[in-house]
Amino acid sequence: MGGYNDNYRSDYSRKEAKERKLRKEKLNLLFQNFSKKRDESSLILVYKEFQKQIGHNFVGELLKLDNKKLEKDFPGAEYEIKMRVNADFNSDNPDQFYFLDSIREKISISKGFLPDNLEAYRRPSENFYYGRGNEDILVIMSGIEGYILKKKGVLENISLGIKNDEFIFKRSEHLKRKCSQEDVFKAIQKVTLEGAEYKGKILRNRSRIDYLSTETGRLYEVVFDICDIIKPKNKPFKKTQIEAEYLGHVPDLFKKFQQGSERQITLELLALSDILMTVAKKVETHCGRIKSVVLTKERKYDFLI
Hints:
Helices cover 33% and strands 36% of the residues. By secondary structure, it is of the alpha+beta class. It has an eight-stranded antiparallel β-barrel with strand order 1-6-5-4-3-7-8-9.
């Protein structure tokens, strides 16, 4: 009896190994096909097969095709759009992951963006804000590997004659990672001498996902944020936002990509936000339901002033 079972398991293992090899070969052929054609239809074909077999880090596999890294045509600049969320939560600590995952499930890949790398942050990040008037100067973010210092530039207006382009946030942003307490102390001293004051703390409970443009290969990070706002001498309160930020682009694989095009980034951020707003207002999870989503000019800093 044991010999029969052993032979059966051995035959089954060989069959499984053969099927895995065939699936891998099929996926590799689809990647090669997209690399040659570089069109939207072949991209969607390989994406669908990738989701069946692996399901995570599709953009990473695209970058491997030509041994490239994600490139940013505006290094040091931040382009993003924010949406204010009005929701009914069923508890004081709703899980933002389920809202973002529900949004992902409802977005059709025919809409021009492919979801990738859905990620939940199970531990809220503590962000401390220093500013001068309406200008946020320094954000100190506590993380597992130490502190992150984020220096913000002045907001610049996008005026391209595109409907709603005034909701695009553009400014410089400089990050310094893995900072020590001494680094933080020096940074606070510096901005204080420049006239900045401590404005308060925000606990960001967030989940994130990437969306790849099927036309241009530009990559956008979408974050669902449920924030606890803690201002000096004020009672804590909550704010909920969705934000989409341009991360960079997959080089050399997308024919419609235009290097250094603010117009293209603006159009895609607006298109992505429109899809997110349309879909999000229909989302209901065991944590609650979203009632409305609208574009907003509110920064996190504005919650504190």
